């Protein structure tokens, strides 16, 4: 299989090339101890579909004819490289090997470079014998199925410069005695394993470290203050762990740090003012924590910062005006915090800003018109702040926004006409006090892929021009007073391969039915995953063609006045997870094929006129889901009388 070449892979291959290129030309045959060790390694491999080790035969010289092996002038093996990703003619080949790491590899006493990465199926523990290879400078064992802990014998690998164990099933604690001994280490990759315990304070002794990636483990405890001693560190990722405690002020000494990822942990305390010392920082991601306090004004000194992601924390206070000094910023994500006060006008100075997300905070006051100066701005999300806007500021009309989200910001009255000539593709004005008719010019918003006008006071039919929204894929109009027939919505045009609905929620309106019998054959509906039409006076019956919607996962037709039988054909929608048909006038039995859909998790047909035995089923459905159907019987309801 051929795959695209990533920058990490290219770097990896370049190192591999250098390791071979600079190996001293050999003058003697492969040493017998090394040859025996490699043959034993091959013997522990149970599957080698791409014949990576085919050239390894007992009758040949391992230094001259064995692929992936290089020796020094005395015939000692210095390089073993058989990765599952390797370059060929203008492509990279992706393969695997199954088996375990032979302890005999520990006999390759002159080995400097070991690469058995991306073999996918290489399992078992890391042999403690590898700790004897004190000449090793590079170990690449990432993307396998290795388990167990890092052997304490690794403390002897004092020349090791790069250690990559990412993407395995390794566990246990990171032993302080091992970590503090690896003083030559410049890159350490431990991500995607099951390591636990705390990051040892001895990490501060690895003063040559430029990259520390341990994301996606179970590492707990606080970040040790000694981290500030790693003056060469430029990549630091502890995201997706169980880190607690506060950020040490010593982190401000990491002047070379470019990337800081600490998201999805349990970090508490405030952001230290010393953060201003991260003068090289470009990417800062600390979302999904419990960080409190305000953003220090000193953050304005991070002139190279491009992405600042602090969403889903417990940050408070006003946004510092110094944020306007961050002229390299392209993305601000501050949603789901407790920020108060006004949005600082200095944001209008961040000329490279593309995304501004301040949603779900406690911000108030007017939105600064200086934001209109941001010509690169594509996304604005100010939703669910007590801004009391009353109307959408007219200066938004001057911008070329793609996404405008102003849900729950106090907007009232009718939709402003300038929206009809805008380039907006994602519009969310839900949970406001908008009223009036949905205007005919809505059909001019042909870039729309997402439209949410739910929880407002609209009271009209959907205009026929709505059919022009050929890119629209997600529509939410629930909880309004819309009326008229559904046909205008369900038969809208599409612009292949786009414009096919993913989701529709029209619940809580006054739309009239019946639902078109051919709904499952409409081009706009062929990819729909969620269809919610509850609490509309639709009448009619459930169309059989719904069973043709192969991507449908959710269908909710509650309180629609629907009568007739539940069609067995509905079971043809094999991805259905949720079926809600309660509070209707449905009669007949429950089709076995529907109740036994493989993915069914939620099913409710209560308050209908259904009868007969409930088919045996695997899904755990409570009795309440079948209640108030006088003719239904069988588990989980009382048994049928004739049983």
Sequence-ordered SSE layout with sheet pairings:
Elements (H helix, E strand, L loop, with lengths): L1 E2 L3 H15 L10 H12 L1 E3 L21 E3 L5 E5 L3 E3 L4 E3 L2 E4 L12 E3 L4 E6 L12 E3 L4 E4 L13 E3 L4 E5 L2 H4 L7 E3 L4 E5 L12 E3 L4 E4 L13 E3 L4 E2 L15 E3 L21 E3 L21 E3 L6 E3 L12 E3 L4 E4 L13 E3 L4 E2 L15 E3 L21 E3 L6 E2 L12 E3 L4 E4 L13 E3 L4 E2 L15 E3 L6 E3 L1 H4 L12 E3 L4 E3 L17 E3 L21 E3 L6 E3 L12 E3 L4 E4 L3 H4 L6 E3 L4 E5 L17 E3 L10
Task: Summarize the structure in words.
The strands form seven sheets. The protein has a 23-stranded mixed sheet, covered by helices on one side. An eight-stranded mixed sheet has the order 2-7-9-11-13-15-17-19. The chain is mainly beta and 643 residues long. It is globular and about 90 Å long. It is built from five helices and 46 strands. Strand 5 and strand 6 form a beta hairpin.
**What would the average pLDDT be, to the nearest integer?**
94
* Overall SS class: mainly beta
- Percent of residues in helices comes to under 10%
Poorly predicted residue ranges: 1-10, 16-27
Give the amount of beta strand, in percent. 15-25%
Count of discrete alpha- or pi-helical segments spanning 4 or more residues: 5
Q: What is the approximate shape?
A: globular
Features:
6% helix; 23-stranded mixed beta sheet; disordered N terminus; 5 helices; 643 residues; mainly beta
């Amino acid at each position: 299989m051929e795959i695209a070449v990533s920058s990490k892979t290219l770097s990896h291959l370049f190192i591999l090339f250098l390791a071979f290129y600079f190996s001293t030309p050999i003058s003697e045959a492969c040493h017998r101890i090394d040859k025996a060790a490699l043959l034993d390694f091959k013997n522990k491999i149970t599957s080698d579909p791409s014949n990576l080790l085919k050239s390894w035969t007992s009758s040949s010289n391992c230094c001259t004819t064995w692929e992936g092996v290089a020796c020094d002038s005395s015939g000692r093996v210095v390089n073993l490289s058989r990765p599952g990703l390797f370059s060929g003619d203008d492509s990279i080949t992706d393969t695997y090997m199954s088996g375990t790491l032979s302890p005999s590899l520990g006999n390759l006493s002159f080995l400097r470079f070991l690469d058995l990465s991306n073999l996918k199926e290489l399992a078992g523990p890391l042999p403690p014998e590898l700790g004897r290879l004190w000449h090793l400078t590079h170990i690449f064992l990432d993307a396998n199925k290795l388990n167990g802990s890092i052997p304490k014998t690794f403390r002897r690998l004092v020349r090791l410069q790069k250690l990559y164990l990412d993407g395995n099933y390794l566990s246990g604690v990171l032993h302080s005695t091992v970590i503090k001994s690896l003083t030559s280490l410049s890159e350490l990759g431990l991500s995607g394993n099951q390591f636990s315990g705390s990051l040892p304070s001895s990490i501060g002794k690895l003063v040559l470290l430029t990259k520390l990636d341990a994301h996606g483990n179970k590492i707990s405890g606080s970040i040790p203050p000694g981290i500030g001693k790693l003056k060469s560190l430029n990549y630091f990722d502890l995201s997706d762990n169980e880190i607690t405690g506060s950020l040490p002020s010593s982190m401000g000494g990491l002047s070379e740090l470019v990337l800081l990822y600490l998201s999805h942990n349990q970090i508490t305390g405030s952001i230290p003012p010393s953060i201003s010392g991260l003068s090289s920082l470009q990417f800062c991601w600390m979302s999904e924590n419990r960080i409190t306090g305000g953003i220090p004004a000193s953050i304005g000194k991070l002139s190279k910062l491009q992405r600042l992601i602090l969403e889903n924390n417990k940050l408070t206070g006003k946004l510092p005006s110094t944020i306007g000094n961050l002229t390299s910023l392209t993305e601000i994500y501050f949603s789901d915090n407790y920020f108060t006060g006004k949005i600082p006008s200095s944001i209008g100075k961040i000329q490279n800003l593309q995304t501004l997300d301040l949603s779900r905070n406690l911000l108030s006051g007017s939105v600064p018109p200086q934001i209109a100066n941001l010509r690169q701005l594509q996304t604005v999300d100010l939703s669910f702040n007590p801004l009391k806007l009353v109307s959408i500021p007219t200066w938004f009309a001057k911008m070329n926004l793609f996404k405008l989200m102003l849900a729950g910001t106090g907007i009232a009255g009718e939709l402003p006409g300038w929206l009809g000539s805008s380039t907006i593709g994602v519009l969310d004005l839900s949970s406001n006090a908008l009223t009036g008719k949905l205007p005919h010019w809505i059909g001019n918003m042909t870039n729309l892929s997402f439209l949410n006008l739910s929880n407002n006071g609209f009271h009209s039919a959907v205009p026929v021009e709505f059919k022009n929204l050929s890119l629209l894929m997600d529509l939410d109009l629930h909880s309004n007073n819309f009326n008229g027939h559904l046909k205008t919505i369900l038969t809208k045009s599409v612009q292949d391969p786009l414009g096919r609905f993913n989701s529709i929620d029209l619940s809580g309106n006054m739309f009239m039915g019946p639902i078109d019998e051919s709904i499952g054959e409409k081009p706009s509906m062929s990819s729909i995953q969620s269809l919610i039409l509850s609490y509309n006076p639709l009448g009619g019956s459930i169309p059989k063609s719904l069973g043709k919607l192969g991507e449908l996962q959710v269908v909710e037709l509650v309180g629609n006045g629907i009568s007739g039988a539940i069609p067995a054909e509905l079971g043809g929608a094999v991805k259905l997870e949720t079926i809600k048909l309660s509070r209707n006038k449905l009669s007949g039995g429950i089709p076995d094929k529907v109740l036994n859909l493989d993915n069914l998790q939620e099913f409710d047909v209560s308050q209908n006129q259904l009868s007969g035995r409930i088919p045996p089923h695997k899904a755990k459905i409570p009795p309440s889901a079948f209640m108030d159907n006088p003719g239904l019987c069988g588990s989980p309801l009382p048994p049928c009388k004739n049983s």
